[in-house]
Amino acid sequence: MRARPSLVRATLVATALWVASPPPAVASVELLLSGAETVYDRVADAIQAQIQRLDDEFDHTLIRRRLDATAQGDDVSVRVAIGLAACKAAVRARARPAVLCALVPKADFMALAHDTPKAPTVSAIYLDQPIARQFSLARALVPNASQAGLLAGPRLQQSRGAIISAARAAGFTLNLLTAQDERTAAAAIQPLVTDSELILAVYDPTVLTPTSAKWLLHLAYKRQRPVIGFSRAYVDAGAIAAVFSTPEQIGTQAARAIAPFLRRQGSGLPPPSYPSDFAVAVNRPVAAALGLAPPSDEQLMREVAAQLKAAL
Question: Most buried of 7, 11, 72, 112 (most Cβ within 10 A)?
Answer without folding.
Answer: 112
